[in-house]
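Milestone M4 deliverable, item 7.
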Amino acid sequence: MGMSVTTSVATEDDAERILKLQYLCYQGEAELYGDWSIEPLTQSLDSLRTELKERHVLVARLGEEVVGSVRGWVDADGVGRIGRLCVHPRMQRHGLGSRLLRAMESRLAAGDARVVAYRLFTGHRSVGNLRLYQRLGYRPTEVEEINSKLSFISLEKRVDDLAVSA
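Output delivered:
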């Protein structure tokens, strides 16, 4: 009998497992852009522990193993910022990324701050990420050229748009 994946709020005890998962998941992005100095690969454990205290962090677990993670917070303008969505390579393409992203949207919406939109970004060559985000209702809003090899595409989902389509 197989185990099912559960989603929960990350704890301080999850920090090392999240960091290892993040490192594993972002190898492909680093290779895609030819840049091994990207922040997800250089983040320190102390920095992640600070995020666990200051932001919303969710994890997906298969038994005791952390197989997915996502982070979020609401900024002063009421924008739910979502980032560092990662799913273990062997668990990808089974809906776990979508599930984590929706869970983070719900968590941010349930907080004290009013959310007017959700925003995230990804690299311009990250076709799978772009496809996932657009399938979940995110629309490109801005392209920021970081250097000759990398541009970030910002995507947004307006809360007003959700009310109209409901």
